[in-house]
Amino acid sequence: MIFPAPGGALQTFAERHGIRIGARAIAPGDEVRLWPEEAEALAALRLERRRASGAARALARNLLAEFGARPCAIGRDGDGVPLWPPGFAGSLAHDETHALAAVARSEKISALGADLEPDAPLASELLELVATPAECARYDLALLRRRVLFVVKEAAFKALFPADRRFLDFHDIEIDLGSGRARTKFGGRCLFAWEGGAKIVALAAREA
Ligand SMILES: CC(C)(COP(=O)(O)OP(=O)(O)OC[C@H]1O[C@@H](n2cnc3c(N)ncnc32)[C@H](O)[C@@H]1OP(=O)(O)O)[C@@H](O)C(=O)NCCC(=O)NCCS
Hints:
CATH architecture: Alpha-Beta Complex
Number of helices: 7
Radius of gyration: 16 Å
Order of helices and strands: HEHHEEEHHHHEEEE
Strand order of the largest sheet: 4-8-7-6-5
Distance between the termini: 33 Å
Shape: globular
Low-confidence stretches: none
CATH class: Alpha Beta
Bound molecules: coenzyme A
Helix content: 25-40%
Strand content: 25-35%
CATH superfamily: 4'-phosphopantetheinyl transferase domain
Largest sheet: 5 strands, antiparallel
């Protein structure tokens, strides 16, 4: 499985906004890719979780290097928000098998959000928890049953939280899949793109 797919929606979105994305399978030993200060911050997490975080940070360091940035630790603040070097915005995500990272210069993109999930159906009792009444009316059941809105909303949350510091419920965000815009009932706005396959992957960007 390759994502973002060459020429696909995510890659097109990333190129338009100057974002670089990296994704790969998590492998045994990725936990040692954590820098000492990162390992210290994540020490309480179980091995699989530290391994996933190590894989995502290794990807992010590669992306930063592509921008010419010096290698650095990517710490976390007290809310879990990843800490990027001055001049950069980024986001990390991982599921059971894969890690994902996205990085951009912060002149145009003040914050990024990335998320991925297996493209498996949502439990039916979760459909109305994730989709607002307006989204339930707008999108067909086949789409609502996939995790598209779930993944896009998680990505949007990651892009919006660092500045707003507001925890959001799924119903606090409305997703317009046609325009690729997300907005919260509190006035937060971001752009996004998503792609399906074995995984659903979404990238959200808050314009500076
Ligand atoms: C932040 C959150 C979305 C992460 O989701 P997750 O499925 O647990 O984990 P993911 O693998 O997708 O993402 C983990 C990464 O997100 C980043 N992250 C964690 N908290 C974050 C926050 N508040 N803001 C932005 N990024 C955050 C970190 O980089 C983390 O990676 P790390 O632990 O290796 O540093 C989730 O923990 C959370 O706080 N959810 C509450 C809000 C919410 O989801 N509302 C419904 C959607 S609006």
